[in-house]
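Q: We require from you a single protein entry containing the residue sequence and its fold in token form, and nothing else.
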Amino acid sequence: MKSENKNQIPENHETHALKHGPKLNRGKKIVFSLITAVLVIAICLGILEVGLRMAMPKQEAIARSIPYETLQDYHTYEILQDVHFTNEIGENIAFISDENGLRNPLGTLPKAEIILLGDSFMSALNTPENKTLAHLLRARGYKIYNAGMDGFSTFQASYMLEDLLLKSHPHTVLLFFYLGNDLHDNYGASVYTGPNRVPIRPTRKDKRKRKSRTEMLCRKSALCYRLFYSPITILGKPRKGRQESMNNAPKPDKALPENIMENFCLSEILSLRNTYDKNMIEAVIKTNLAFYHMTAMAKAFDFRLVIIGLPSKAMVYEDMSKVPYADVEKRFDDFVRVSEEQGFSYDRPDTVISTLARHNGLEYVSLLQLIRENRDQKIFFENDPHWTALGQKITADFVADKVLK
């Protein structure tokens, strides 16, 4: 062994380079190629992300960016989450949801004397915090808790109220009923499950299915959202197995060629007709059940319950073309023609809900005439069917002076 070692030529730098040089160069090339590939992929993904953000429909972008969370009978924003929204005039609205996933300062609920219920008119995502109806009422000295939530039906509002009453003792509850589509929402809502319903709020942390940090971050990416969460594929085609619809297109119904009550545009026109079909009658009956449920709560918890009717833009301007999605609904003209032949009234939803409220022994306050008197001002956004900050202020002044006093 020693003789063999003596015969070996010692390896110097030159021999080492000649022997191992090609392997080292090959390794460096592989590393360089990998880094280059990663950079190219990252750049391509970045370009695709920017392209999707620019091309993504506004409604889908909103759904992607707002952190909603589903409970047993209703939904809220994620607890203590940053919520961001940009309205059509370019105002950037930002707030942090409270411990109940709603738009309030922390710790507001236990001290609240008045609870506001309603849908997106109350949550007012398109309005800066200091201009919302809830804030303006607080500025007048009222202890307000805003329990408004986007897309709520009357049933969802009543379920939420039932849970909120476990932590608060209000003397007044104001239910803002949107006359434009709350009948539509109530038609598709689950009816009250009775006294055996299990409240969510006492065990909220255990009951809620918390989204992982990774999923929340992923949903903020337009690319990841399209790949994994959106009902629309990255190629722009509907994804199989998804029930959501970003354009509120009606879903097929087994009994009818198409259930008009599941169409935002046509169901609002239907609500204006003097004669209701069986589906609209079902919506009215369900709304009456929701009022009955809330009346029982008002008696049990000893608070004043007032129903406030919020008119739609079409009702205020007495113009069918103001109905949401009228410009894209193919059957709009035919539906309007039939409504004119059968007879309709822009006051019809207000009359129906007023009758239901009185039937249940509830106070009803209509905002229809108030908003009509101010319709020459910019109380609605141009494209968005919701109130502007001015609409919020006019309503807040009226509620403070005429309802709460």
The chain has two domains: 14-55, 92-212+247-403. Residues 57-64, 198-213, 238-257 have pLDDT under 50 and may be disordered. The radius of gyration is 29 Å.
